[in-house]
UniProtKB/TrEMBL annotation:
GO terms for biological process: extracellular matrix organization. Residues 17-87 form the SH3 domain. It holds the Pfam family SH3_2. InterPro entries: MIA, SH3-like_dom_sf, SH3_domain. Keywords: SH3 domain. This is Melanoma-derived growth regulatory protein. PANTHER family: MELANOMA-DERIVED GROWTH REGULATORY PROTEIN (PTHR47312:SF1). It comes from Collichthys lucidus. Coiled coil: none annotated.
Amino acid sequence: MPKLSNKKLCADAECSHPILIARALQDYYPGDCRFIPIRQGQLIYVYAMLKDRGNLFWAGSVQDTYYGQQEARIGHFPSSVVEETHPLMEASTEVKTTNWDFYCN
């Protein structure tokens, strides 16, 4: 799969800490396995914001209402389908993306 961007903004060099919590404004059905499905009202922990040509996409994990209801995996989604609800850390670390950031199995 092609890379969506060559750079991303994270809270740390490993992108291991969430930047913010966002709430889905609408359902989002992904086009391929690089993206995660989102239902309106779900909370998403955002770990990275893509830069440059991919700046419309963020990477995160959905927090469902019941633990284990949805497999925990990080994927991309359009930033336009969510609203920021709780800032957690500043996204001040620029990190180069790798092919693994956009890997599909």
